[in-house]
């Protein structure tokens, strides 16, 4: 695999990165290649809809299992962490797709890992990765050779000390992915719910929504109450479907669906007054299988402020 020109990634351990190595007759990927692999995977479509959140443990799934490398998707609820561990003989790379993670290494400053910038490392690299934010996070990881035995450590001052293991053998993978939770009470605040919803949406500005409707036949849907529409005005051409019936009107399998709701490929662009409820509503439509559902950032207020067409309050023709 060729690296994309100009692609930058954070070098995990500050050393010269390991070049391709021959392991068991299979050419391993370099950390640079793994960084590219996780970036390409994270920017592909379709996979994030399959991510699940688990309060009791980190959710993870091996989404590719090849002879030379594997790819894992992991979700992290607030407070979940790996504990200190290495990856055995594997090189690795990971990228945050949604949310924020932190990486801890003994004697080094905490590294905040924001979406889009992969972190890559060679074999024998040890770290502790944590979600210390208030919102869930999702990350994509690749290892080469594919992840095998891993070792867990405890921090003793500035040093990592291997955890005592009665068997004397490395922990199996499933043990490594076991969860440590703290501070997490099992409830999501409304801000966290919004973060989860918006992590799945490709939200649109009013201008982008206007263009999507004009050029691609997307459906603009006003989910505000009648009272809000009467006070604020409406958008000409927008379909009015109040929030309490939204899912029944757009589920293609619903007997109460609208005639237009015949398939899952329909792009429904929801808006409300200020773009909060609409994010939750669009995520609910995605749960129904309308994977292109999204909403308008800052809602009707931003649409009006952008100078896009509206029918002022009192004129309810729209
Ligand atoms: Fe790791």
What does this protein look like?
By secondary structure, this protein is of the alpha+beta class. It folds into two domains: 10-185, Sandwich (Jelly Rolls), CATH 2.60.120.10; 201-305, Rhodanese-like domain (Oxidized Rhodanese, domain 1, 3-Layer(aba) Sandwich), CATH 3.40.250. Helices cover 21% and strands 23% of the residues. It is built from eight helices and 18 strands. The protein has helices at 31-42, 173-176, 190-199, 206-216, 226-232, 246-250, 277-287, 299-305, and strands at residues 10-11, 22-23, 26-27, 59-65, 70-76, 84-85, 91-98, 101-104, 111-113, 119-121, 128-130, 137-144, 152-156, 159-162, 219-222, 239-240, 268-271, 294-295. The protein has a six-stranded mixed β-sheet, covered by helices on one side. Strands 16-15-17-18 form a four-stranded parallel β-sheet, with helices on both faces. A three-stranded antiparallel β-sheet has the order 6-13-14, with no helix packed on it. β2 (22-23) and β3 form a beta hairpin. The structure holds fe (ii) ion. Fe (ii) ion (FE2) binds at residues 82, 85, 87, 127, 129.
The SS-based structural class is alpha+beta
Helix content: 10-25%
**How far is the first residue's CA from the last residue's CA?**
52 Å
pLDDT < 50 stretches: 1-23, 166-185
* CATH topology value of the largest domain: Jelly Rolls
What is the total tally of β strands? 18
Kindly report the average pLDDT value. 84
Which radius of gyration do the C-alpha atoms yield?
23 Å
Order of helices and strands: EEEHEEEEEEEEEEEHHHEHEHEHEH
| Distinct small-molecule ligands in the complex | fe (ii) ion
* Total domains: 2
Strand content: 15-25%
Biggest sheet statistics:
6 strands, mixed
How many helices? The count is: 8
What's the CATH architecture name of the largest domain? Answer: Sandwich
Tertiary shape: elongated
CATH superfamily heading of the largest domain = Jelly Rolls
Provide the CATH top-level class of the largest domain: Mainly Beta
């Amino acid at each position: 695999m060729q690296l994309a020109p100009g692609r930058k990634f954070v070098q995990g351990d500050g050393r010269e990165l390991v070049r391709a190595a021959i392991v068991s007759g299979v050419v391993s990927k370099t950390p640079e290649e793994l960084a590219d692999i996780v970036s390409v995977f994270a920017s592909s479509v379709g996979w994030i809809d399959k991510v699940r959140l688990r309060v009791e443990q980190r959710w993870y799934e091996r989404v590719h299992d090849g002879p030379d490398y594997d790819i894992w998707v992991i979700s992290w609820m607030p407070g979940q962490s790996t504990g200190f561990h290495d990856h055995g003989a594997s090189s690795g790379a990971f990228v945050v797709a949604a949310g924020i993670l932190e990486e801890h290494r003994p004697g080094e400053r905490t590294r905040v890992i924001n979406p889009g910038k992969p972190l890559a490392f060679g074999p024998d690299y040890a770290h502790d990765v944590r979600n210390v934010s208030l919102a869930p996070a999702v990350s994509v990881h690749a290892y080469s050779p594919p992840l095998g035995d891993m070792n867990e450590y405890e921090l003793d001052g500035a040093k990592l000390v291997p955890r005592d293991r009665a068997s004397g053998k490395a922990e199996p993978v499933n043990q490594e992915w076991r969860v440590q939770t703290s501070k997490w009470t099992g409830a999501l605040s409304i801000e966290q719910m919004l973060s989860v919803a918006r992590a799945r949406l490709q939200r649109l500005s009013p201008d982008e929504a206007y263009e999507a409707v004009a050029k691609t036949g997307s459906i603009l849907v006003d989910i505000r109450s009648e009272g809000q529409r009467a006070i604020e005005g409406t958008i000409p051409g927008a379909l009015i479907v109040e929030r309490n019936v939204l899912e029944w009107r757009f589920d293609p399998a619903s007997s109460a669906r609208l005639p237009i709701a015949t398939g899952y490929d329909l792009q429904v662009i929801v808006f409300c007054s200020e773009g909060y409820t609409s994010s939750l509503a669009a995520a609910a439509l995605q749960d129904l299988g309308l994977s292109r559902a999204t909403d308008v950032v800052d809602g009707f207020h931003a649409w009006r402020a952008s100078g896009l067409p509206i029918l002022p309050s009192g004129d309810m023709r729209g």
